[in-house]
Amino acid sequence: MKYLQRIALLLVVSSNLVGCVPIPSKNIETPNVSGVLTEDGVGLEGYSIQLAYGVSDSCSVNSRQEVLSTITDKEGAFIFKNTYKWSLVRWALPLDGIDYFNLCIIAPDGRKKWAYIPQIRTPSWAPDIKLSCENEKLLLEPKEVESGFKIKPTCEEVRL
């Protein structure tokens, strides 16, 4: 029995040395994202909006990550509720970084446009995002996502 206790103690101490603690934790996969899609100040109804995190094209069938979808209401408003993922390890060090959320906006006639939103976040903390998207400012082609703020945001972030 003492042998198992020593192994457990060794695992706890070594994991602490590399900056993680073996405690199950609930990490934020995507934060709350809400916004409005407009054209010339008028809300656009019936547009499908797909949200993906860390990918260049959330409309692509090659995206390996889960894509969230919603449809704009008559005022052009859309909402994505936050999603979580469980982890068996809790990082003891701050792991903040810049990540991109990709919106693919699909018009009722099938035309697609893209928007990218950079965000500083950690696995356990990500602020809610409120957006104002003008249809004419959205990108006509997806961009390659790279680290840092290399893609100019195409939707304005509204401060809460």
- N-to-C terminal Cα separation, in Å? 55 Å
- Give unreliable regions as ranges: none
Rg on CA atoms, Å: 20 Å
The portion of residues assigned to helices is 10-25%
Biggest sheet character: 5 strands, mixed
Structural class by sheet pairing and helices: mainly beta
Keywords:
1 helix, 160 residues, 10% helix, mainly beta
Structure description:
With 160 residues, the chain is mainly beta. It is built from one helix and 13 strands. The strands form four sheets. Strands 3, 4, 7, 12 and 13 form a five-stranded mixed β-sheet that branches. A four-stranded antiparallel β-sheet has the order 6-5-10-11, with no helix packed on it. Strand 10 (97-106) and strand 11 (112-121) form a beta hairpin. It is elongated and about 70 Å long.
Question: Helices and strands in order, then pairings?
Answer:
Layout: H1 2-17, E1 20-21, E2 25-30, E3 33-39, E4 42-43, E5 48-53, E6 68-71, E7 77-80, E8 83-87, E9 90-91, E10 97-106, E11 112-121, E12 129-134, E13 156-157
Parallel strand pairs: 3-12
Antiparallel strand pairs: 1-9, 2-8, 3-4, 3-7, 5-6, 5-10, 10-11, 12-13
Short structural description:
The chain is mainly beta.
